Amino acid sequence: MRRLLTTFIMAICVLTIAAETIKVGNLTRNYISYVPRELGSHRPLLISCHGMNQDPYYQKNMLKIETVADTAKFVTVFPEGIDKGWDLSGNRDINFVLALIDEMVEKYDIDPCRVYLSGFSMGGMFTYHAMNKIADRIAAFAPISGYPMGGATANANVRPIPIIHTHGTSDDVVSFSNVQNCLNVWIRHNGCPTTATVTHNYRNAPHITRHVWGPGNEGVEVVLMEMAGKGHWISNDYGVLTGDEIWKFCSRYSVDVEYPVVKPQVQIDQRFTSIDEAKGHAFAIVNEAEGKAFFGTDNQNLSFDSMEDAFDDGNSGYHFKLENSSVTNGWLLRLITPDGSPYNIWGSPGYLNSQPADGWCCFILGLNNQNGQDIRNGAVWEIEYVEDKGFSLKNVGTGLYLHDAAPAKYSTPAYFTFCTTAVVSGIRQVMPETKPSGAVYDMQGRRMKPDNLRPGIYIKDGKKILVR
After folding, report:
1. What is the pLDDT of residue 373?
2. Which pTM does this prediction carry?
């Protein structure tokens, strides 16, 4: 009876935890948080994302972070994904995380330089996605039982980042066998030693083997907590709490953040007013009336979102080039990456398609497969420029127009600007007074290698330079 009463009281406590809300764009997002008493000022923040078909309460109960947070004095936020899942290719949930950071800074005087991101299962996959998106805002990352199912990638412009990955060897949902391949991508990117320091029976726990690759560039480490015989859950036994290990690792790191953060604004640089002008150039496709642009994300997805989101460095492609179709009188739109190289999908060129080729992808592999240029729903476009309106995109096969990231299904045209873009930053100062001569910084204040600059605006010796 006593046990039943205790269980009932605990259930009442959980039910009375009210979800907090925050407005992110046009969406109202939910989250719960754990804030220790007598928190103090300028304390760290850990964001912990639940798995697919789970929720923040389940994640909080699995992670068991309260005792750790009470002792170390940090805030933990458990966000809720839309439809109990996470956006693994775009910016919807990245923007949610950034909004949460701002909210916590304002409510609890969180130190914006000591923010850490973790997640379980699909939340772990999202954690990897965020590594390429917001490494300038997250000091360390801690995925649990999750990684990109198509393989990890590390964008060249991302700083060296600390990672602690926890995974059970008997996981039958997200296989342990692919963990090492994902970690190897970041081990190489971080400049870590390729041979790990291995500790068996870590902290006298017979099932834990701890692998450490490091230190790498800027002193970062990549750590794997290998949990022998554990399945698809967060491991907390033999006195070793996963949350405690995540905190001990992450708390060693911080990242320089000038707060409040001023997001660089994207502006149109050069507008093209004819096909001839656009030929030979990599250009953006923008709907100026809506302030949106097309871009490619992971897994062949076509997106159409705000210019700031479309031209984010974390996106894999947002430029296009015109190519003549060899089949009919029309044009092919080949996707180009931000550094000016062709965007490849599984080793083949990516071309804009008139509709999702297999129900979820809007780019095709090459031209003569997956609804290529030689069949009805292909990649050939009739492009027309109308003075004072812009370019319309009509698919030759369907005879219908492209309006957004949906298939070319509209009977009336939408008009787009073909243009180059420029980034204008609101940051007042990006270099210290004792800057070394010849040093080059990007608009977020990160030092860059002068011989490996992507197109964009940089600061060199106190002056703006434009690299095309």
Report:
1. 65
2. 0.68
The pLDDT tens digits for 181-211 are 999 999 999 999 999 999 999 999 999 999 9
Query: How far is residue 245 from each of residues 16, 68, 72, 347, 349, measured CA to CA in Å?
Result: 29, 10, 13, 39, 43
User: What pLDDT is recorded for position 368?
Assistant: 60
CA distance 437 to 278: 38
Residue type, 203: R
Q: Whats the size of the chain, residue-wise?
A: 468
- Give the number of other CB atoms < 10 A from CB of residue 262: 13
**pLDDT one-digit tens code per residue, 371-417:** 566 666 788 899 999 999 999 999 988 899 999 988 888 999 999 99
Q: What is the distance between the alpha carbons of residues 272 and 417, in angstroms, rounded to a whole number? A: 7
> At 194, is the secondary structure helix, strand, or coil?
coil
- CB 391 within 8 Å of CB 385: yes
Nearest to 216 by CA among 126, 154, 166: 154
CB 26 within 8 A of CB 96: no
Phi, psi of 100 (to 5 degrees): -65, -40
Q: Give CA 134 to chain center in angstroms.
A: 6
Q: Extract the tokens encoding 331.
A: 């044009």
Name the residue with higher pLDDT: 144 or 341. Answer: 144
For residue 448, give both structure tokens: 């860059």
User: Count of H helices and E strands in the chain?
Assistant: 9, 28
Mean pLDDT over all residues of the chain?
85
What b-and-e string marks burial along 213-250, b requiring 16 or more CB atoms within 10 Å of the CB? bbbbeeebbbbbbbbeebebbbbeeeebbbbbbbbebb
Closest Cα to residue 246, out of 84, 108, 64?
Answer: 64
Give me the sign of the Cα torsion angle 132, 294, 347, 340.
negative
Integer-rounded Cα radius of gyration of the chain: 24
CA gap 61, 233 in Å, rounded:
12
Rounded distance between C-alpha atoms, residue 450 and residue 249, angstroms: 32
Verify cis geometry, omega within 30 degrees of 0, for the bond prior to 260.
yes
CA atoms of 224 and 431, how far apart (whole Å): 35
